[in-house]
Design goal:
alpha+beta; Beta-Lactamase; 6-stranded antiparallel β-sheet; about 350 residues; Alpha-Beta Plaits; 5-stranded mixed β-sheet; globular
Length: about 350
């Protein structure tokens, strides 16, 4: 399949995408509700939200496949960047743009595609799509329903707002450096980057005087989980808990995988009492999770340590982190499965 032509407004498109601030950031589960709804409503096996950079199509949410990115020059969605609203292709083998695509002739052997262009500042920056491995008819009513879901997705894009420290962090770096900032298992910020974000957030707190809270989260008895059920199972626990944490936070909050089974959450403009409420909701959610191991139902718990600039005298980001660590220690000493600060 020939690569899609580069849009005439490519530079403006890329500027709008980069200013949005979500391209090289961890995956966001808030888009999963949209892709799940598409799969249920239209009974399709695959739906996804993507952002399209210079050379890469980045997946922000996907149902039906395990996929993080793919080259832009092989992407069907790259053609959607060229249209005002959407592409509907009921049979990809009958469309000259796509009939020799490797996604059509090999591998998945896709046959059906609907892609809507997501926009920022009037520029096409990504896609909301559904695909199927069989041809399908797509009626006027189907198109109207998909437009409604597209409006939902577009609203989520428009409402996306990272904290200024995270935006500054990603805009100062090139692509390879940005990717190196993420944890490979969870897609969260890694240890070094999380500490850097905390340092920047603390300096911002000194300027704005808005309360800054740090939250240390640790999976209880994680070594025993690995010993009893194996490291692949332990990895699945880490991934699922990271998803719970992501879905519990505001877009402007930052979260990193701080250690093997430990997470650092940075809450700007968040007083201690609000962080306590958030911790309670997170604990409740974790307590409802069950993991299957060879037919056996396994439950896990977490402990949380909190520290906040409106709760105690904090003179450095290191002190904020140390205070959160003390809170985590207190939570462990109090029997785990609780939050202390």
């Amino acid at each position: 399949m020939p690569s899609a032509p580069i849009p005439e407004n490519e530079q403006s498109r890329l500027e709008a995408l980069n200013e949005l601030g979500i391209l090289y950031t961890p995956l966001e589960d808030r888009f999963d509700s949209i892709t799940r709804t598409i799969c249920r409503l239209f009974d399709v096996p695959i739906a996804y939200v993507s952002l399209i950079d210079t050379d890469t199509q980045w997946i922000k949410s996907i149902q039906g496949l395990e996929l993080v990115d793919l080259p832009r020059n092989t992407s069907i969605c790259a053609h959607t960047l060229l249209v005002e609203e959407c592409i509907v292709c009921e049979d990809l083998t009958q469309d000259g743009r796509f009939n020799d695509s490797l996604f059509v002739t090999e591998g998945l052997k896709l046959r059906f595609y609907v892609g809507f262009a997501l926009k920022s500042r009037g520029q096409n920056i990504g896609t909301l799509c559904m695909v199927d491995i069989k041809p399908r008819q797509f009626s006027a009513n189907d198109l109207a329903a998909m437009r409604d879901i597209y409006t939902w997705a577009q609203t989520e894009v428009n409402l996306t707002q990272l904290s200024e420290v995270q935006v500054q962090l990603i805009t100062d770096l090139d692509q390879a450096q940005r990717e190196a900032k993420l944890d490979g298992l969870t897609g969260l910020w890694n240890h070094i980057t999380a500490k850097d974000i905390l340092r920047r957030a603390y300096h911002r707190h000194l300027l704005t005087l808005f309360p800054l809270t740090a939250m240390m989260v640790d999976i209880d008895n994680f070594k025993q989980i690995n010993d009893d059920y194996g490291h692949p199972f332990g990895d699945s626990v880490i991934e699922q808990i990271s998803k719970v944490l992501r879905t519990s936070l505001r877009p402007s909050d930052a979260i990193g995988r701080y250690g093997g089974d430990e997470f650092l959450v940075i809450l700007e403009n968040c007083p201690f009492d609000r962080a306590e409420e958030l911790s309670s909701r997170i604990l409740e959610h974790i307590n409802t999770l069950t993991f299957d191991h060879n037919g056996q139902s396994v439950t896990v718990s977490i402990s949380i340590g909190l520290s906040a600039t409106d709760r105690e005298s904090i003179n450095s980001p290191e002190q904020l982190l140390e205070a959160a660590d003390r809170g985590l220690y207190d939570a462990k000493e109090s029997g785990r499965n609780c939050a202390k600060g």
